[in-house]
Design goal:
heterodimer, A: mainly alpha, Arc Repressor Mutant, subunit A, 2 domains, 13 helices, 66% helix, B: alpha+beta
């Protein structure tokens, strides 16, 4: 039978481990958030990131340090350089999100860390979606419009640009801007038949209602 | 997306999170790193695994309990082991990557490179002094060398590591690693270890048989130009990188040389200095 001392030391160690994983999540860290968004998109226009992450992208000194430390190429298109640490790290972050989405893992951790997490350890995949939805809604120019487009895509399951124009009574230019924004946040995907909600949005649709 | 903390805070938080996942700071990563290992040894080193609730958490991360404790392929535990290795390299300016470089009329060439300026860039981003950026590899190397020095004696462990660090590289004409075997035998005699003992120590800190991690193939599968492996040791100090180099000999055809280069040299030297 393991002693009380072993158990309390273990709780401390598990708590450090879990807290470290949580701290890496893109919903909690600005650096991993930017890296993860680049991963979701493959490449992002430099101009867009300059607006969204000015404190990393605008200052040449910071931008260069960031590029060298993580392996990010900041040209007209911004992308993760293949084989470098940034690319590896975002793959790991994907695994962290998966792990914390697993009900079984969370319930087992909760049984040991109930004092620290009285409401349970967070579902980081859901949290990341929430952060993106909130980020989207606070976008000054196209945020509200993009949310309406997103709601419509979720409602019908799949929609083309022209469908969205008709059903929301919007101009083509606005629909394009809105869908670009939704793609940037990884909230929709495009296939040959139109736009569809991302997997995480399909799972946690109820979050849209709270926005 | 609604940020209040400064970029510096986020960089520091990220570094701290990675450090807290390193085996010198956390027994879960340590346990993952030291698998596969038999149950009895693991229960002795990590009595925590006898707590049923904890065992369940480990199982949920993909650790399998049987006669041996090991992690499953593609499990989260495997991802943690990979993260530990990559972060060791990254924060010790040893992260390896491969790139195609264009040499005008000579075309493109693949080359092995290192992210060798990471610490200084992180110091700029975080506002910390470079020496305050933790180095998980160095921390781990110090722990391992101290632990093994207690078990086998300082002279043997430090003698072997110093002998290794005095080499610039090892070269072989085939994959069997004869030059490494010769080195281990010679060092065994110098430090006064029996053949069985030197084999054991060598596997703990230098490299184990059948534990090479293939990290890159140069050329294509049809026209291979050589391969690159990281040689793993039981305690994952992993000081050797092996690269095979293909060349043509007119009377035998294509052959490969195997060159072993030393990695983490500076950190290993620092770890030894502390122990001396």
């Amino acid at each position: 039978m393991a002693g009380e001392h072993v158990k309390s030391e273990l709780t401390k160690q598990l708590s450090n481990f879990v807290n470290a994983l949580i701290a890496l999540a893109p919903s909690r860290n600005y650096v991993t958030q930017l890296l993860y968004l680049i991963k979701i998109n493959g490449t992002i226009d430099y101009r867009i990131l300059e607006d969204a992450y000015p404190d990393i992208v605008k200052d040449e000194y910071v931008r260069e340090s960031f590029a060298k430390a993580f392996g990010v190429s900041f040209k007209d298109k911004v992308f993760l350089e293949p084989g470098k640490y940034g690319e590896f790290l975002v793959d790991f972050l994907g695994r962290v999100l998966q792990l914390f989405e697993d009900v079984e893992f969370r319930s087992k951790v909760n049984s040991l860390l109930k004092d620290e997490y009285p409401e349970g350890v967070p579902n980081l995949a859901q949290e990341w979606l929430e952060v993106r939805l909130k980020g989207l809604s606070s976008e000054r120019t196209y945020g509200k419009m993009a949310l309406n487009v997103l709601r419509e895509i979720v409602r019908v399951g799949r929609a083309k640009t022209e469908d969205l124009e008709k059903s929301l009574n919007m101009g083509r230019g606005d629909v394009i801007e809105a869908t670009n924004l939704l793609r940037l946040y990884g909230l929709i995907k495009e296939d040959p038949y139109g736009f569809i909600p991302s997997e995480s949005l399909k799972k946690y649709q109820h979050l849209l209602e709270g926005i | 997306m609604g940020e209040e903390k400064s970029l510096k805070d986020h960089v520091i938080n990220l570094i701290n999170a990675l450090i807290n996942l390193s085996p010198s700071r956390n027994i879960i990563s340590q346990l993952i790193l030291l698998t596969p290992e038999d149950q009895v040894t693991m229960s002795h080193s990590f009595p925590e695994i006898n707590i049923p609730d904890f065992r369940e958490v480990l199982k949920a991360m993909g650790i399998k309990f049987g006669e041996k404790i090991e992690y499953l392929k593609d499990s989260f535990a495997e991802a943690v082991a990979r993260l530990v290795h990559k972060t060791f390299d990254w924060l010790d300016n040893e992260y390896i990557y491969f790139s195609y470089d264009y040499f005008g009329q000579h075309g493109f060439f693949e080359s092995r490179k290192k992210m060798d300026d990471v610490r200084s860039q992180l110091a700029k981003l975080s506002g910390l002094h470079i020496n305050l950026i933790p180095n998980p590899y160095l921390e781990w190397a110090k722990l391992v060398i101290r632990k093994l020095s207690h078990k086998y004696g300082k002279d043997k462990i430090i003698g072997l590591m110093k002998g290794l660090l005095s080499q610039s590289s090892f070269k072989d004409r085939d994959y069997r690693g004869k030059s490494l075997q010769n080195f281990a035998e010679k060092m065994g005699m110098e430090i006064g270890a029996t053949p069985a003992e030197i084999k054991e120590i060598y596997e703990l800190v230098v490299c184990m048989e059948d534990a090479s991690e293939h990290i890159y193939r140069k050329g294509s599968s049809r026209y291979p130009q050589g391969d690159v492996w990281i040689e793993h040791s039981k305690y994952h100090l992993d000081p050797l990188l092996c690269e095979s180099l293909r060349y043509l000999i007119s009377y035998t055809g294509w052959v490969f040389d195997y060159v072993y280069e030393l990695r983490h040299k500076e950190s290993l030297k620092s770890a030894l200095e502390v122990e001396v």
